[in-house]
Design a protein that fits this description.
This protein has 99 residues and is mainly α. Helix content is 79%, strand content 0%. The longest helix has 31 residues.
Length: 99
């Protein structure tokens, strides 16, 4: 498996996540798209870390996974709170956090 393959797969996964974030209006799908983009970056970091025989990329990928887990917890709590108060999840109509 060469470095071109790692770059191509990572770019493809990141592109799918970016398109999913821009096109979809459901916040849960948008969060999944952001996670997909973060996983594409992690795949690239770990792949090149293995290719270059260095642990720096793997350590940085662990940090990204930790931050992504915290982001999901906070984001899902916000989405759940908005759904409980508004009974809808349309991103274009959500203005609850404006204040």
């Amino acid at each position: 498996m060469g470095s071109e393959f790692i770059l191509f797969v990572s770019a493809a996964i990141f592109s799918i996540g970016a398109v999913g974030f821009v096109v979809r209006k459901n916040p849960l799908v948008m969060f999944m798209s952001v996670e997909l983009m973060l996983n594409a970056v992690n795949f690239l970091l770990i792949g090149y870390s293995s290719f270059l025989k260095s642990l720096d990329g793997q350590i940085f990928a662990l940090v990204i996974m930790t931050v992504a887990a915290a982001e999901v917890v906070v984001g899902l709590a916000i989405i759940l709170t908005i759904f409980r108060t508004r009974h809808e999840l349309d991103v274009d109509r959500i203005n609850v956090l404006k204040g």
